[in-house]
Inverse folding.
């Protein structure tokens, strides 16, 4: 199944919904249509597990440059996409097949877990480019890596490698590219075998919400 002018592919199997960004010729740069499609898929799925990944060697270069010239940076579609992922009641996993940059950071930060390939790098160049990050991104980033390290990325504009991302807590595991899908599925195994209500309750508790 395809969404967003075929730039997003969706595969549903055994209570697992895999969403694949499918614009490798543009480094999977996100358009408003892609963001809207992503949000719609996440809201509509009844899966227990959500896996977000991409084609090619880059997860996403961030916002589509032509779209930015037309105001994409201020679109509510960014918050809608990351908000839908954050609200997903099951287990969400970002399987990062390569570099994660700019506004695309938001959808990965909204996931419960993040795994990455060794050559992935991470940066959010809002300071250099003069943009502001999406509203929810700084708090989610700081919750994972701490306020000072979040400022290293956002204010100091630091680009970090996968080993640093792992040490900081931005990603939870590094694995070989050929093992990315299998690693994501192994992390999803127990959630897929559990009652969805149990999965949702445990997620609320680990998020600090009232059970």
């Amino acid at each position: 199944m395809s969404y967003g002018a075929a730039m997003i592919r969706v595969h549903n199997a055994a209570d697992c919904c895999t969403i694949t960004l499918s614009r490798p010729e543009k480094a999977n740069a996100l358009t408003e249509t892609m963001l809207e499609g992503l949000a719609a898929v996440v809201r509509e799925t009844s899966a227990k597990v959500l896996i977000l990944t991409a084609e090619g060697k880059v997860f996403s270069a961030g916002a589509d440059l032509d779209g930015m010239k037309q105001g994409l940076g201020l679109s509510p579609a960014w918050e809608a996409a990351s908000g839908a992922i954050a609200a997903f009641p099951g287990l969400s996993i970002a399987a990062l097949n390569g570099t994660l940059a700019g506004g695309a950071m938001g959808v990965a930060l909204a996931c419960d877990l993040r795994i990455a390939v060794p050559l992935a790098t991470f940066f959010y160049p809002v300071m250099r480019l003069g943009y502001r990050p999406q509203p929810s991104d700084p708090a989610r980033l700081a919750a994972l890596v701490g306020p000072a390290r979040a400022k290293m990325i956002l204010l100091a504009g630091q680009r970090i490698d996968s080993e640093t991302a792992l040490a900081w807590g931005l990603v939870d595991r590094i694995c070989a590219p050929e093992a990315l899908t299998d690693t994501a599925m192994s992390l999803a195994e127990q959630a897929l075998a559990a009652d969805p209500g149990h999965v949702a309750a445990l997620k609320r508790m680990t998020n600090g919400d009232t059970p």
